[in-house]
Amino acid sequence: MDLISPDLGLIIWQTLGFAILFFLLAKFAWKPILAALEERDGAIEASLSEAEKAKLEMANLVAENEKLLQEARIERDEILKSANEYAAKLMEDAKGEASKAGAKMIEEAKAVIETEKQAALTDVKIQVAELSLLIAEKLLRQNLSSEASQKKLVEDFVKDIKLN
Amino acid sequence: MFSKIIRLSFLLSVVLLTFSGVALAASGDDEDKTSFIMHHIKDSHEWHFATVGHSHITLALPVIIYSSDRGVEFYSSSSFVDPDTHHFGVEYNGYYIDEHDKLQAVDESRSFLDLSITKNVAMLFLVLIVTLYLMLSASSFYKKHPNRAPRGIASFVEPIVVFVRDEIALPNIGPRYKKFTPYLLSLFFFIWIGNLLGLLPGAANLTGNIAVTVTLAMITFFVTNFNGNKAYWKHVVATPGVPLPLLLIIVPVEIIGLFTKPFALTVRLFVAITAGHIVILSFIGLIFVFESYAVGVASTLMVVFINVIELLVATIQAYVFTLFSAMYIGAAVADHGHEH
């Protein structure tokens, strides 16, 4: 068997062997392997694009959440503001009413005091008059008991009249 | 690591020389000492593994003969062996195996077909079994676990399959690559596993046999030309854009070109693998020629080194054969002919 002259027997066996190998491998190995590889490539591609989609959706959700939060914040601020205003107004009203009521009470108290004062003054006047009368009576009774004093009184009266 | 290799080489050399002392007692001159190289490189009707002293460890292989007058005949190759010399030469049923290990009929006028399971045919069966086992176990993984990352043999096979598909078939053949990927995959794995198994001690030189490489090259030739489209054939028989007088020169060149392609494929693989085997065996042969421990150590170191290179060559040659096949097929099925 020479080195560089191909042997017919071996060529026949090699052709047969390789043909069998090719058909067996093509049918039972390459077909399933290549199909599985392609399927897996497809699956990986699909899951990658799905992940990308999920990422986008997530970003959208986050943005929406942010928007909702912002809106809620604005609303809260508005509610707080209006509540403050209302409270201030309520306080203002209460203050006004209280001062009005106070003024009215003071007015009334003043009127009562005035009436009481007038009553007391009238009382005092009556008392003074009564006391004056009493004093005058006593004085009169004491001073006119003697002749001299009577004379004197008369003289005083006359003096006064002269003066007038 | 390196010191380990040196120690291992020394040990190997000592073992080889101890055995060789006995073996050499039987053999004579220097040519006998190196004849095992060509014996290993060529095909044979028996599978000779080793010679210990005077006893040969040999596997007798079936001899199958087909002839028009006697039909199919089966013999064992041991029937043709001389029991005294342990060499072929004995006549049996009108046949004998000559000194070139070629089956001959005693009656020289008879013609017959030698379909024996020679050493290389047995090696071919071994390569087929290993390749089929590896690929079928890999494919069973994909059937059992679809859409899962590969494990075991599948994880070994998958990157190579993807490489052949995406780096060899797709760029060289183009959009119709799917039709030819199974062929290229079978080709790559057959040559690669054949090259690797051929490097094992005692293995046959299958992918370095010219009958094997010429068969593979012819398969590529037929696949290429049976799938050749109009543009490809027009390019061969009437190259576009070439003036008529020049066509007289160009067309024969193109037609010769059809056949130089498979010829190049044949010779490239045959030479690369056979040369590698010869280099390794020559370094081992040096030990027996010089019968020196120093040469033994140096040779064994070189053998280890060349063996590592051969692992690389085994892969490169499988890749190159597949790549060129893909390129030839690609040129034949391309939608636009190459305009020169």
Mean pLDDT of chain B: 87
Molecular shape of chain B: globular
Number of strands of chain A: 0
Most extensive chain-chain interface? A-B, 36 and 51 residues
The dominant shape of chain A is: rod-shaped
Number of domains of chain B: 2
Strand order of the largest sheet of chain B: 4-3-7
Strand fraction band of chain B?
A: 5-15%
What is the chains' assembly state?
heterodimer
Sketch the topology of chain B as an H/E string, one letter per element: HHEEEEEEEHHHHHHH
* Portion of residues within helices of chain A: over 70%
Mean pLDDT value of chain A? 90
Q: What gap, in angstroms, lies between the N and C termini of chain B?
A: 54 Å
As a percent range, the share of strand residues of chain A is under 5%
Q: What would you report as the Rg of chain A, rounded to the nearest angstrom?
A: 65 Å
**Spans of at least 5 consecutive residues with low confidence of chain B:** 21-26
Helix content of chain B: 55-70%
Structural class of chain A: mainly alpha
**Main sheet summary of chain A:** none
Notes on the structure:
- The complex is a heterodimer of chains A (164) and B (340).
- With 164 residues, chain A is mainly alpha-helical.
- Chain A has one domain (8-163).
- Helices cover 93% and strands 0% of the residues of chain A.
- Chain A is rod-shaped.
- The N and C termini of chain A lie far apart (190 Å).
- Chain B folds into 2 domains: 62-116, no CATH class; 119-333, no CATH class.
- Chain B is built from 9 helices and 7 strands, in the order ααβββββββααααααα.
- In chain B, the strands form 3 sheets. Chain B has a 3-stranded antiparallel sheet with strand order 4-3-7, with no helix packed on it.
